[in-house]
């Protein structure tokens, strides 16, 4: 078998595994977020936090919870890195510099996981496991919580008929943030990550707390290795669509991703929760078919992008790759071109940003596909939680466009999309492009940022465009030739991550609150059927046109110019 | 005003307490439990898949090494590898790729030079290696710089040189390569590959026995 059919078979195997897994996982997650019961361990946790998990929150309260928890996260992670020099269990590594510590704290709390640092030489055991890995869990749990809050906004009063005499109460309540945070962590992420981590160790990923030790080499001499709790972090790094952690080479490092099987398994992990959340959504709004329509939209874009990526990478245009006879620069032999292409697309269409091969050395068009994936807002299937809420915002926009075409007040899932709702959705989709384009333009206009580029010309511009796209969309992957460990990049990228994470959440929760307070409108013959393939088509079109066109001029200057020249 | 300050402080306190409790769960209990299971069930793998030759540890089967003499099979180039610049009490390898783009002039030169070198080194008195037979992995750097593998094609074109340098027959070395070629997992995952360190250890054994 040639590499192309093998690549296609790996894609099909992945689709089959996701199709099987998303149903029970999605249904389970719906149960987790709808249940009235608390586990005993959760009760202890609530006691520790000092909150009542049964208090219903309206959207401002829910948002305050998200922001307070995240602010505490940034502060704690910043201090942990600044104090590394005096922390025990840190291999004697010194403290991280202030600008890099801010960047990394912002990065891990916002689910971006951009690595401005070299993991192997900078971060000791304590910062890795008690700092970075913890945010890998909780930032993912926050993402899912916000998505679930939005789903409740649509679903009420379907899922919670807390009624007196059968009349649903519409109060604009969205649930309890602390309960959602704790349940997502304890009932979903920790058990799944534990199983996944053991599978990764079985494949060869390391899991120990050894210090740096010296081993002999074949030709004599020796080499020094880092030990570390790598597998346990790798598991949640993929599962929580995080993407950062131990080694500079990320999931290309054999200790993080040792075999072809672990590679496919890691791709599966980074897709499974965002995909399963479409099921959770379907169950919670009381129509599995609505979930399928969203899933079909995500799958269409993902499969299309993978096909394009495989085509351009196997064709390996570009002078160096033509000369080499294949697009193997920055790729590992055990994965090859096919599997690396699937990983690259999956990591940039989710908010993961882990890499098993280096995007900067992909073909010009291949690099463009990874960027476009992020620019679509990472919604196919997107990050844990952020993918679903991003896609639902696009669905609101698509419904609105359809409403304009036929001259009817748009509605989605029985809720009217009025002026307030469409304003909030429009603000949401404007934030990230504004951050990406303004920061990129400013960086290009200033004299010093360009000194960080490894490559010149169109590709040099792409390095900077990629960095701000990745940060603002909370992806975390890079055209890693860019030396981003400068005060300028550490600060502005950190800022882009924070604004790109929390401003959209403000609008999502405000929208959720507004929907939750609405009385549902009955379905009539004139209602747009959002569970039908026609709507999926409309949604795919809206996504590609709206976000695609926003970025077209920037893409034309970078990856398109490079791709078309070769 | 005073009221909202207290409220904010109370909320931040709750956030901090939540973080600390969840740090205990996900940052202490979880990694320790996974480490316990990993160390008990997969001790060798959890500690880096160390590999021994003549009773001595000579590296990890997962971590590619550089610097083999021409009597041995050569690994892929690793131009993206670095050395540590902070915490210099250690001598750490920094994994990494070159990140050079497909149209980067330095990369073009590097591939050209690597190809010429591979052709020159592997052509022997009775074997002429054609540049078009050099596979891509032989002239490009991997993503990690630590790629432990080469493609079977890259191993194949090194057979004549290795046989000649070690006084072995081509068939003997070819068989060695075949024995160490791993196909795709389950027939379709990843790409076929040869682990360079394992192959070279076996080669050394064969030469010693010969």
TrEMBL record, chain A:
The chain crosses the membrane at residues 61-80, 188-209, 264-285, 292-311, 388-406, 427-446, 493-513, 534-556. It is a multi-pass membrane protein. Pfam families: KdpA. Its main location: membrane. GO terms for molecular function: P-type potassium transmembrane transporter activity; potassium ion binding. Keywords: Cell membrane, Ion transport, Membrane, Potassium, Potassium transport, Transmembrane, Transmembrane helix, Transport. It is found in: Cell membrane. One of its GO terms (cellular component) is plasma membrane. InterPro entries: KdpA. It comes from the Bacteria. Belongs to the KdpA family. HAMAP family: KdpA. NCBIfam families: kdpA. The system is composed of three essential subunits: KdpA, KdpB and KdpC. Part of the high-affinity ATP-driven potassium transport (or Kdp) system, which catalyzes the hydrolysis of ATP coupled with the electrogenic transport of potassium into the cytoplasm. This subunit binds the extracellular potassium ions and delivers the ions to the membrane domain of KdpB through an intramembrane tunnel. This is Potassium-transporting ATPase potassium-binding subunit. It comes from Streptomyces phaeofaciens. The lineage of its organism: Bacteria, Bacillati, Actinomycetota, Actinomycetes, Kitasatosporales.
UniProtKB/TrEMBL annotation, chain B:
GO terms for cellular component: plasma membrane. Signal peptide: none annotated. One of its GO terms (molecular function) is ATP binding. It is found in: Cell membrane. InterPro entries: KdpC. Keywords: ATP-binding, Cell membrane, Ion transport, Membrane, Nucleotide-binding, Potassium, Potassium transport, Transmembrane, Transmembrane helix, Transport. The keyword Ion transport applies. It is a single-pass membrane protein. The system is composed of three essential subunits: KdpA, KdpB and KdpC. Part of the high-affinity ATP-driven potassium transport (or Kdp) system, which catalyzes the hydrolysis of ATP coupled with the electrogenic transport of potassium into the cytoplasm. This subunit acts as a catalytic chaperone that increases the ATP-binding affinity of the ATP-hydrolyzing subunit KdpB by the formation of a transient KdpB/KdpC/ATP ternary complex. NCBIfam families: kdpC, PRK00315.1, PRK13994.1. Belongs to the KdpC family. PANTHER family: POTASSIUM-TRANSPORTING ATPASE C CHAIN (PTHR30042), POTASSIUM-TRANSPORTING ATPASE KDPC SUBUNIT (PTHR30042:SF2). This is Potassium-transporting ATPase KdpC subunit. The gene is kdpC.
